């Protein structure tokens, strides 16, 4: 079971120079391919005078895309993408803009420059872990509410909502909803039977 994944903590930018060519990297957090494509187009408009705007993006759980944008095949987009694969980071887009300095770098030099710029941008952005959690909802008698709240807390789960009516209604995010639901059923003698909802990802702690 996948318990979570890492994403950039924020935006990241970097600049490096290799034999007079300038490499400008811009990295952003995105959640969809459309967001990634929109950022790529925005960077191409902003740096329209550059020779190359190479890019890559990763969207959890399985979308990887890249472009060499006119550089020799395999010398730009893929080396950038490999940086993020090695770091196991998702939900990001990175565009590295190259202003040509008049000296050919060769495939190896280009690969090092593009991957280096991408790595520096990620280092500046930092990363955060999004833990896998499941939504859980329940209704419990008022007499049991404090004991159930204590159980939820000790399980490392988070109560995200309350509603007070004839019973106490709670919505919860739990790292192991099945186990917590069973514990609540046992604590309440079967009087409280939580329902388990969708899986979500979010920062823990």
Order of helices and strands: EEEHEEHEHEHEEHE
Helix vs. strand class = alpha+beta
CATH architecture of the largest domain: 2-Layer Sandwich
Shape, principal axes of CA atoms: rod-shaped
| Strand element count | 10
CATH superfamily of the largest domain: Impact, N-terminal domain
Helix content range = 25-40%
Would you kindly provide a written description of the structure presented here, covering whatever features stand out?
The structure is a single chain. The chain has 205 residues and is α+β, with helices and mostly antiparallel strands. It folds into 2 domains: 4-125, Ribosomal Protein S5, domain 2 (2-Layer Sandwich), CATH 3.30.230; 131-203, Alpha-Beta Plaits (2-Layer Sandwich). It is 34% helix and 39% strand. The chain contains 5 helices and 10 strands, in the order E-E-E-H-E-E-H-E-H-E-H-E-E-H-E. It has helices spanning 33-46, 77-87, 106-125, 142-154, 177-187; strands spanning 4-8, 12-18, 21-29, 52-59, 63-67, 92-99, 127-140, 158-164, 168-174, 195-203. Strands 1, 7, 8, 9 and 10 form a 5-stranded antiparallel β-sheet that branches. Strands 2-3-6-4-5 form a 5-stranded antiparallel β-sheet, with helices on both faces. Helix 4 (142-154) runs antiparallel to helix 5 (177-187). It is rod-shaped and about 75 Å long. The model has no long low-confidence stretch (mean pLDDT 94).
């Amino acid at each position: 079971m996948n318990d979570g994944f890492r994403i950039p903590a924020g935006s990241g930018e970097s600049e490096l120079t290799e034999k007079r060519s300038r490499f400008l990297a811009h990295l952003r957090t995105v959640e969809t391919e459309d967001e990634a494509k929109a950022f790529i187009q925005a960077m191409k408009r902003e740096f329209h005078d550059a020779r190359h705007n190479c890019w890559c993006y990763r969207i959890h759980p399985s979308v990887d895309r890249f472009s060499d944008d006119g550089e020799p095949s395999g010398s730009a987009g893929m080396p950038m993408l490999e940086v993020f694969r090695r770091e196991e980071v998702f939900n990001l887009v990175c565009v590295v803009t190259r202003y040509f300095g008049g000296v050919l770098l060769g495939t190896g030099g280009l690969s090092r420059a593009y991957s280096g710029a991408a790595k520096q941008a990620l280092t500046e952005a930092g990363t955060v872990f999004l833990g896998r959690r499941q939504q859980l909802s329940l209704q419990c008698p008022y007499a049991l509410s404090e004991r159930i709240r204590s159980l939820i807390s000790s399980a490392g789960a988070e109560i995200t909502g309350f509603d007070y009516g004839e019973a106490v209604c709670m919505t919860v995010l739990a790292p192991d909803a099945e186990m917590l639901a069973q514990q609540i059923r046992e604590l309440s003698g079967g009087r409280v039977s939580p329902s388990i909802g969708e899986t979500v990802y979010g920062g823990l702690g």
